[in-house]
Design goal:
Distance between the termini: 35 Å
Number of domains: 2
Strand order of the largest sheet: 1-5-4-3-2
Structural class: alpha+beta
Helix content: 25-40%
CATH architecture of the largest domain: 2-Layer Sandwich
Number of helices: 4
CATH topology of the largest domain: Alpha-D-Glucose-1,6-Bisphosphate, Chain A, domain 4
CATH class of the largest domain: Alpha Beta
Radius of gyration: 18 Å
Order of helices and strands: EHEEEEHHHEEEE
Number of strands: 9
Strand content: 25-35%
Shape: elongated
Length: 177
């Protein structure tokens, strides 16, 4: 059985990722492996509190709306009575203590998180929210009075208007080719 839960933090991806990593490793003693800035996998131990007989969870991270979307996928051995929502609530409370920002619940498609083009490479992470990616002048771009003006460019995933040189959409987090 799998269950997916989503949260949105108005915080940068690095802060959210590191908070989850620390909490999963130190507070939940469940750290298994990671793909930096993309996923953290943890183990679910036998638990009366969560009524689980084991399993695993994977936390996926994606830039979204100038913040970070988090998708938690639970893979639980038992079908009836598992309290994965309680586990998620406890995990999220620990993360909130670390970053001091409460999440908003969002409804997203887990497949957006799992697309290879939405996977981040660590070198890109610093530039996502700061938008410090170098933009070379071209026919579509010109500097006018210190501001960048460009022709209309839109995200192929969600249609949001993006700036020339952006590597990711600020609305849906889609990686721009």
């Amino acid at each position: 059985m799998t269950r997916d839960l989503f949260h949105y933090f108005e915080a940068d991806l690095v802060s959210v990722y590191e908070a989850y990593r620390t909490v999963i490793q130190k507070d939940f003693d469940a750290f298994l492996q990671e793909t930096k800035y993309n996923t953290i996998k943890g183990g679910l131990k036998y638990s009366f509190k969560y009524n689980m007989n084991g399993g695993a969870f994977t936390v996926h991270f994606m830039p979204y709306n100038n913040g970070t979307a988090v998708a938690i996928r639970y893979s639980i051995a038992q079908l009836f009575g598992a309290r994965y929502q309680k586990h998620d609530k406890d995990l999220t409370e620990f993360v909130v203590k670390k970053i001091k920002i409460k999440p908003k619940d969002v409804v997203l498609n887990i497949n957006d998180f799992l697309r290879p083009e939405n996977m981040l490479i660590p070198e890109d992470v610093e530039n996502i929210f700061n938008n410090k990616i170098n933009v070379e002048e071209s026919a579509d771009t010109k500097i006018e009075q210190g501001t960048l003006s460009q022709s209309n460019v839109f995200c192929t995933q969600c249609g949001n208007k993006i700036n020339v040189g952006d590597k990711f959409c600020g609305k849906c987090g889609h990686k721009i080719s």
